[in-house]
Amino acid sequence: MIRTESAGDHILKFGSRALYHAFVGGMAALALLAFVLAPATADTVVWDEKFYNPKPGDSDFTLPTPCGGAMTFLPVALASESLMRDQSFPLGSSDPDNAFTEGTRTAYLSGSFGDVGDQARRYFYIAKYELTADQASAIRGDCPKKPSVKGRIPALGLNWHDAVSISHLYSHWLVKNHPDRLPREDGQIGYVRLPTEAEWEYSARGGLMVSPSEFVGRLFPLDEKVDAYIWYSSTSSANGKPRPAGLKKPNPLGLHDIIGNAEEIVFDSYRLTQFKRLHGQAGGYQVRGAGYLTDKSALRTSYRQEIPHFDANGEKRVPTVGVRFAIGAPVITSRERLLSFRKEWNSMLSELSEQTEEAAPKKVEIGLGEQSDNPLAELNTLSKAVQSDEIRERLNDLSLRVSTLIDTMERQRRAAINSLLRQGGLYEQSLAGDANVIARFEKAIETMKKTGTTASRLKRILRAQDERKSAHEGNVRLYADLIVSTGSTFDIGAISSQRSTLNVELKERKFEDMILLVERFYKEIKGFKKSNSIDFDTLMSKFSAEK
User: Which domain covers residue 441, as residue numbers?
Assistant: First the structure.
């Protein structure tokens, strides 16, 4: 279980009843002061857990709300070697029809909080459920007479300004009434806010709880039919009405209704996508996750829509829109943390500048005053421009080290691709062999059934066959992960070049069969690069015993 410096146990059992009056003219400041400083009736959440956390879990982190209520969050872990090294992952969809609105791009995340038990893990918190009507009323100071299942329906008709205001009120109340219950980072207190688009989609896809090939799927992995997880527009599903939070099964991270029910506001302004990046124009606010009026065919993790902040009638509100909060913390939490960032940044630069072998720099001539994307060309230009012999000598030395680094990195890259191609060929060989073994056992089992093999022996054989099939499926999943990681990390030109190099070696060693296996792996990579997705069922059928 992840623990923070001072958040204590993840299930917190307390709350308060607070008075809050609507802002009216010059009384606004007095009303806010009365709200945040109102004494708590007890350090105990008085709402029944089914009204704020109907599906309790071991990783739950629950904070009190005004009126004796509560809100439950989950930690979302990220693999971070250090403070400065963030995690990259693919965002968006490969669907050509939505390429300009949901196109694939790379995003980067690092968590707001460090894990005291594992320095390589950082994390942020995201709400386990969408903000409910009762929770929104309580935070705004209008205590529900009695929490109810109806009050567990998402708070809808919100816009971005509403969502920010509610998160501000909630953070303000927590800081004034229960600061010891908020997570802290380097002594700085955390606060409730809207999730960023990257945080939302990373969480919706399943984060570290899913494999790379599952992460890029249209939806997070489903053990059952989509209806078990998502409310959508069908009469067999939401039937045109929002539903109480937490009735459906969660995604792999444990988040309920992350797709469907309410469309969820994120912090970022809406932008189009353009060739693996966001377009430069910022527009209205952005909602994610689809809603109870979304058609089943449109359900996808990459779903994103724009809603204007205002129209001719004033503030724009849409009845299907709600919010799911996150908890974050400042980046620069102290002077010591700032110095740590600086130290690590300098260390990273030093690592890049390490000379691992002697190599002469490439000579590149460009006109003075012209800036080049080629670092060696730029260093050459600067060396010619300076008047100081000492500076020129240092620039030449730097050029030598940069060229050495580039050469070393390129060698490592080629060796890595070569190794991955070999591994992919071996997977092709091994999986095909496993499928043949399973097929032979299937025939043997059919023969045993006909020849009267004892029930106990047949039972053992069937159990062993089921285990063999399960292991085979797991290995196909690992192969899918290898396809995705190789295709995502390297460009197809570099992969093709190394394929040719490897083929020469394999021909020399008389490994013609392996050349064919590597070619199959290469075709799988090309297919992934083209669609940016993996059809696991198709891959599984390729290595099926029944094909």
Answer: 412-542
Q: Find the DSSP H helices in 150-304.
A: 160-177, 197-205, 212-215
- Residue ending a domain, among 313, 335, 357, is 335
Structural domain includes residue 372: no
Q: Which residues in the chain come in under a pLDDT of 70?
A: 1-43, 81, 118-120, 348-374, 407, 508, 545-547
**Where is the domain boundary, 295, 316, 335?**
335
Examine residue 462 and state whether it is found in any structural domain, yes or no: yes
Asked whether residue 113 falls in the same domain as residue 262, the answer is yes
Burial of residue 96 (number of CB atoms within 10 Å: 0-12, 13-18, 19+):
exposed
- What's the CA gap between 381 and 69, in Å, rounded? 65
In a domain, 40, yes or no: yes
Residues with Cβ within 8 Å of 443's Cβ and at least 6 positions away in sequence, in order, are: none
**Residue 342 to residue 33: CA distance in whole angstroms:** 40
Q: How many CB atoms lie within 10 A of CB 112?
A: 22
Same domain, 233 and 331: yes
Instruction: Quote the number of domains for the chain.
Output: 2
Query: What percent of the chain shows pLDDT beyond 70?
Result: 85
Helix segments in 38-110, DSSP class H: 99-102
C-alpha separations of 356 from 353, 359, 526 in Å: 9, 9, 34
From residue 24, give the alpha-carbon distance in Å to each of 141, 148, 164, 520: 14, 30, 20, 70
Model pTM score: 0.72
Q: Which long-range contacts (CB under 8 A, 24 or more apart) does 489-497 make?
A: 490/413, 490/416, 490/417, 492/525, 492/526, 492/529, 494/413, 494/414, 494/417, 495/417, 495/421, 495/522, 495/525, 496/522, 497/414
Residue 296 belongs to some domain of the structure: yes
pLDDT number for residue 106? 87
Query: For 195-247, what is each residue's pLDDT tens digit?
Result: 999 999 999 999 988 888 889 999 999 999 999 999 999 999 999 999 999 99
Q: Are 89 and 109 in contact (CB under 8 A)?
A: yes
